[in-house]
From TrEMBL:
Start and end residues of each Ig-like domain: 108-208, 219-296
Keyword Signal: yes
Organism annotation: Danio rerio
SUPFAM superfamilies per UniProt: Immunoglobulin
Gene: si:ch211-66e2.5
Gene3D superfamilies: Immunoglobulins
One GO MF term attached to the UniProt entry: integrin binding
Matching InterPro entries: ICAM_VCAM, Ig-like_dom, Ig-like_dom_sf, Ig-like_fold, Ig_sub, Ig_sub2
BP GO terms, sorted: cell adhesion
Alphabetical UniProt keywords: Signal
The protein, known as: Si:ch211-66e2.5
Length: 302
């Protein structure tokens, strides 16, 4: 396009200068524009020009009178736009050009989070992959993806090595080995476009919905050791078999002394338990554990 213009002006394309010795100044030198927003950038020449103009697919413009020319777009939607300001001067260097540093950005349409290949419950101590997907974001090189567990940032992922200017979909994977303390923890990921000081402040961000992860684990007794109880005859006996587990454990008590089954209660409380061995089993889908209680009567006369 510029070549056409230079031909029209009857000039040869030799020795086009850009950079410091160029007498052109773009203001602002870096423009960060939201997709669909208007933009206006000026190009100012510091010495007399024959022609000053903007080479651009859209909104090309030029002047033969002024020392300043604007590149103005009402709604910028062209992802590959690379406007260049050029000047043709009366004196050497006769041709100059400056490229506008233009960043057209678009916030992601959505950010989603999921557990990869999730069919069965999440089990303590096993490895799982969480995936965060960012849909339709540009330019991805400015994207930072942050992973959070509750309020804590656990990992971040940059995409600075990627170059496309057009919107893309990207994803990040977080490996987790959950423990029981993390049962019910909320995971989220956040996409942030770090567009620099010329960009919007604070940087545009989109947060994923939160993913709650229930961590399943087998029953564990607070004190797994066998318990010996010496009680006076007729006094109430309390056998506490409470175990922690997810899903909540169910309990079965067995003893030659128990006529009726005393199922599904973690604590056996009775004044009529006769001496002997009582076994409690706590179980859930991940396993079962047993614990023994031995009741002895205090010998009389002591
Ligand atoms: C997910 O499951 C599919 C099919 O079962 C398997 O091919 C793939 O490797 C799994 N991906 C991960 C990350 O485990
Ligand atoms: C990413 O996390 C590291 C620590 O893991 C931190 O030093 C760095 O500042 C973070 N990067 C961003 C862009 O927040």
């Amino acid at each position: 396009m510029k070549n056409n213009l230079l031909c029209f002006l009857g000039l040869s394309i030799i020795g086009i200068v850009s950079g410091d010795s160029c007498s052109l100044e773009i203001s602002p030198p870096r423009a960060v524009v939201k997709f669909g927003d208007p933009v206006t950038v000026s190009c100012v020449a510091s010495r007399p020009v024959r022609v000053l103009g903007w080479e651009s697919i859209i909104a090309a413009s030029h002047t033969q009178h002024d020392l300043s020319v604007q590149w103005r777009v009402d709604s910028l939607t062209d992802w590959i736009e690379e406007p260049i300001c050029y000047g043709v001067f009366f004196t050497a260097p006769r041709q100059c050009e400056e490229k506008l540093n233009l960043v057209l950005y678009k916030k992601p349409d959505s950010v989603s989070i999921s557990l990869v290949n999730h069919s069965s419950p999440v089990v303590e101590g096993r490895e799982y992959q969480l995936q965060c997907e960012v849909h339709n974001v540009a330019p991805v090189q400015y994207l930072v993806l942050r992973w959070y567990r509750e309020q804590t940032e656990v990992y971040n992922h940059s995409f600075s090595e990627l170059t496309p200017a057009t919107p893309v979909q990207v994803s990040s994977t977080l490996l987790i080995v959950p423990n029981r303390a993390e049962d019910g923890a909320q995971y989220r990921c956040e996409a942030e476009l770090q567009l620099g000081p010329e960009g919007p402040q604070p940087p545009p961000t989109v947060l994923s919905p939160s993913l709650n992860i229930a961590v399943h684990y087998p029953p564990d007794f607070r004190s797994p050791k066998e318990e010996q109880l010496e009680v006076s005859e007729g006094s109430e006996v309390v056998l506490d078999c409470t175990a922690e587990g997810n899903p909540l454990p169910v309990y079965i008590w067995t003893s030659p002394n128990l006529q009726e089954k005393a199922d599904d209660q973690p604590v056996l409380k009775d004044a009529s338990l006769s001496p002997g061995v009582y076994t409690c089993t706590a179980s859930n889908i991940l396993g079962k554990k047993s614990k023994q209680f031995v009741i002895k009567h205090k010998s009389k006369g002591v």
